[in-house]
Design a protein that fits this description.
Layout (H helix, E strand, L loop, with lengths): L9 H6 L2 H23 L7 H19 L4 H6 L1
Helix pairs in contact: 2-3
Length: 77
Amino acid sequence: GRGGGVLMKASEVHNLKDDELLERLRQATDEQFSLRFQHATGELENTARLGAAKRDVARLLTVAKERGIDLDRELKA
């Protein structure tokens, strides 16, 4: 649903399976994009979500890289 967000702790990220990690990464990048868009159009009241989404994406990317996941290939799929 809207508004809940997918905020996670670092430990949760590390517990994800590779396919779950990629799914979360897709969700987080989608959310970051839509939040950025809302922010640009002045519709975003909660700008803290933007920073949180950015951190989620960064955290997920870091773990994916640690695992040697080929993100270019996986995220195009």
